[in-house]
């Protein structure tokens, strides 16, 4: 009973399955991240996905790469050049939609992955020359579907400053979504804004300046519009990294 209650209080955060220790990489190995599992793990409920395995490519499997084809980007096998773009894209779009039911507060992606990398993924041109401006197919679908969701790569989380920033964002988003899912009244939104004033100001005075007049319209604006606009401004503000001299006290 106590264990199940403790589990229910954990916040749901999506993650690339290999980072949890699942042996789902192309070569049948994993890339378990000790910080995520041991330090952050007690506070979150991990929601795992491996897009390539989920798309039915199997484990182990041929490694893949992203290749530019005109204005399009394709995912192909490194040896066979078999095109698996449609399979991975179709699965990614379905899985991203399915994740709506998990009420995620954040997501941690596997860096450099042609499916999960959120930035600087190797993208090969038609001559086989790589650049570092690709985005994984699953990561692209995830970021497009959930623009307010705090998303990071595990490699970037080795930086203490970025790690603190990500943790701050997922817990702030949890507090906001918990309020939103409870059917808040205008005065509840005002109270939330007052409670988080210092945090938002530390991240972005510009966003805070827009949020004040927005909150002042609580009770006048349709509640759905107010919630959507406030959430967008809140998460845009918190996406900015705090400089050391502006940390909230």
Give a topology summary.
Layout: H1 2-8, E1 11-16, H2 34-40, E2 44-49, H3 51-54, E3 64-69, E4 72-77, H4 85-98, E5 107-109, E6 121-124, E7 130-134, H5 137-145, E8 151-153, H6 160-181, H7 186-195, H8 197-203, H9 205-216, H10 223-238
Parallel strand pairs: 1-2, 1-5, 3-6, 5-8
Antiparallel strand pairs: 3-4, 6-7
Could you characterize the architecture of this molecule?
The chain has 249 residues and is of the alpha/beta class. It has 2 domains: 2-157, no CATH class; 183-246, no CATH class. It contains 10 helices and 8 strands. The chain has helices at 2-8, 34-40, 51-54, 85-98, 137-145, 160-181, 186-195, 197-203, 205-216, 223-238; strands at 11-16, 44-49, 64-69, 72-77, 107-109, 121-124, 130-134, 151-153. A 4-stranded parallel beta sheet has the order 2-1-5-8. A 4-stranded mixed beta sheet has the order 4-3-6-7, with no helix packed on it. Helix 2 links the parallel strand 1 (11-16) and strand 2. The longest helix has 22 residues, at 160-181.
State Rg: 20 Å
Sheet with most strands = 4 strands, parallel
Strands side by side in the biggest sheet:
2-1-5-8
Q: Could you name the ranges where pLDDT drops below 50 across 5 or more consecutive residues?
A: 1-5
CA(first)-CA(last) distance: 37 Å
Number of structural domains: 2
Order of helix and strand elements from N to C terminus: HEHEHEEHEEEHEHHHHH
């Amino acid at each position: 009973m106590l264990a199940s209650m403790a589990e229910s209080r954990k916040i749901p955060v999506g993650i690339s399955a290999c980072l949890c220790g699942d042996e789902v990489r192309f070569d049948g190995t994993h890339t378990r991240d000790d910080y995520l599992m041991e330090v952050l793990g007690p506070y979150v409920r991990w929601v795992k996905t491996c897009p390539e395995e989920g798309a039915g490519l199997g484990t182990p499997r041929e490694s893949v790469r992203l290749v530019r084809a005109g204005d399009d980007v394709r995912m192909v096998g490194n040896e066979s050049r078999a095109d698996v773009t449609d399979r991975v894209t179709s699965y990614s779009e379905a899985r991203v939609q399915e994740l709506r039911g998990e009420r995620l507060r954040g997501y941690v992606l596997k860096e450099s992955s042609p499916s999960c990398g959120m930035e600087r993924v190797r993208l090969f041109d038609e001559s086989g020359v790589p650049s570092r401006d690709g985005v994984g197919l699953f990561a692209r679908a995830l970021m497009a579907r959930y623009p307010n969701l705090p998303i990071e790569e595990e490699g970037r989380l080795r930086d203490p400053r970025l790690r603190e920033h990500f943790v701050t964002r997922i817990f702030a988003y949890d507090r906001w979504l918990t309020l939103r899912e409870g059917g808040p009244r205008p005065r509840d939104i005002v109270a939330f804004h007052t409670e988080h004033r210092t945090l938002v100001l530390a991240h972005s005075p510009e966003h805070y300046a827009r949020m004040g007049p927005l909150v002042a319209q609580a009770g006048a604006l349709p509640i759905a519009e107010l919630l959507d606009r406030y959430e967008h401004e809140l998460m845009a503000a918190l996406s900015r990294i705090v400089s050391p001299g502006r940390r909230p006290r």
